[in-house]
């Protein structure tokens, strides 16, 4: 096979169908950028789960005098010292418990003032209205139900709350956004494949005279198809390269010079550059192979010897 002939045919095909080639490049770039972004979003959610699940606590809130008057769960009155000691002893005996921290009403009031001091409600609260609690760190955050079952409904216990439940709602939202991005990516991928097939067919039709001569002189189907397949592969590779550029720019501007500089998000453990760079070869490989395979199957009916 003469490489010079194949390369010249690729250039001719790309120039003849410049508008459609541009559409293929853009659609491939956008679909693969969404694909790579979805993979990175999945990595980010996994990283956040590993980071935050290790820090979540289970909180056992104890009844105070205000609860005894208003909450049916505390109908037997505010928690006593004997009940607190029994709860603490039982917690320390549980194999799923790692550490236990007791927060007094005064400490809870101080923490509330630090976090919500600007709230209009904070001026009307007093320390005796705050609840004492035990903050429990579990060895396995998935074992929350063991603690909840053991202490819910006990005398002196107002409620047992798991911070992991709040995080699960956040992660479900992020996963939903990820699935939405994948759905848009699939739609863009279908559009890209349709454009590739149409571009290849138009290119084959515009060069039907040359391919007819090649058939007459005995050229093989693969030799005839090769310029068209490589045209699609080159367009897809350019699109894949643009998608990689979008991912790199997104990491640089959105995370490095956006989210990481926000004081409200400085506790989030964002994915690093290594995670982005690891996805680039996959994006490029898909950008190269997907159009080439689409062109190969689209040409089988049109360029048989």
TrEMBL record:
Keyword Phosphoprotein: no
FtsX extracellular domain sequence ranges: 56-160
Main location: membrane
Positions of transmembrane segments: 21-41, 179-200, 236-255, 276-299
UniProt topology in membrane: Multi-pass membrane protein
Residue span(s) of domain ABC3 transporter permease C-terminal: 183-301
InterPro entries: ABC3_permease_C (IPR003838), FtsX (IPR004513), FtsX_actino (IPR047929), FtsX_ECD (IPR040690)
Compartments in which it is found: Cell membrane
UniProt key word Cell division: yes
Domain of life: Bacteria
Record key words, sorted: Cell cycle, Cell division, Cell membrane, Membrane, Transmembrane, Transmembrane helix
UniProt xrefs under Gene3D superfamilies: 3.30.70.3040
Pfam families tied to this protein: FtsX, FtsX_ECD
Family: Belongs to the ABC-4 integral membrane protein family. FtsX subfamily.
NCBIfam families noted in UniProt: FtsX_actino
Function recorded in the entry: Part of the ABC transporter FtsEX involved in cellular division.
The protein's assembly and partners: Forms a membrane-associated complex with FtsE.
Protein name: Cell division protein FtsX
Provenance organism: Streptomyces flavofungini
């Amino acid at each position: 096979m003469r490489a010079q002939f194949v390369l010249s045919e690729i250039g001719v095909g790309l120039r003849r169908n410049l508008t459609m080639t541009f559409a293929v490049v853009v659609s491939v770039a956008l679909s693969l950028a969404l694909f790579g972004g979805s993979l990175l979003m999945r990595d980010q959610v996994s990283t956040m789960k590993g980071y935050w699940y290790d820090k979540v606590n289970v909180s056992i809130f104890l009844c105070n005098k205000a609860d005894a008057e208003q909450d049916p769960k505390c109908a037997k009155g505010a928690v006593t010292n004997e009940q607190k000691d029994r709860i603490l002893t039982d917690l320390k005996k549980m194999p799923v418990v790692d550490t236990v921290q007791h927060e007094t009403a005064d400490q809870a009031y101080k923490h509330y003032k630090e976090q919500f001091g600007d709230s209009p409600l904070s001026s009307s609260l007093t320390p005796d209205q705050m609840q004492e609690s035990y903050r429990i760190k579990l060895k396995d955050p998935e074992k929350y139900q063991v603690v909840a079952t053991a202490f819910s409904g006990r005398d002196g216990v107002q409620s047992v709350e798991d911070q992991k439940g709040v995080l699960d709602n956040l992660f479900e939202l992020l996963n939903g956004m990820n699935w939405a991005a994948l759905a848009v990516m699939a739609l863009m991928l279908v559009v890209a494949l349709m454009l590739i097939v149409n571009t290849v067919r138009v290119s084959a039709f515009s060069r039907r005279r040359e391919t007819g001569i090649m058939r007459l002189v005995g050229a093989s189907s693969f030799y005839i198809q090769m310029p068209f397949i490589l045209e699609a592969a080159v367009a897809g590779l350019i699109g894949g390269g643009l998608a990689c550029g979008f991912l790199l720019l997104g990491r640089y501007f959105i995370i490095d010079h956006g989210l990481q500089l926000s004081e409200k998000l400085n506790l989030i453990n964002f994915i690093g550059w290594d995670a982005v760079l690891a996805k680039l070869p996959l994006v490029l490989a898909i950008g190269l192979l997907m159009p080439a395979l689409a062109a190969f199957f689209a040409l089988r009916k049109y360029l048989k010897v």
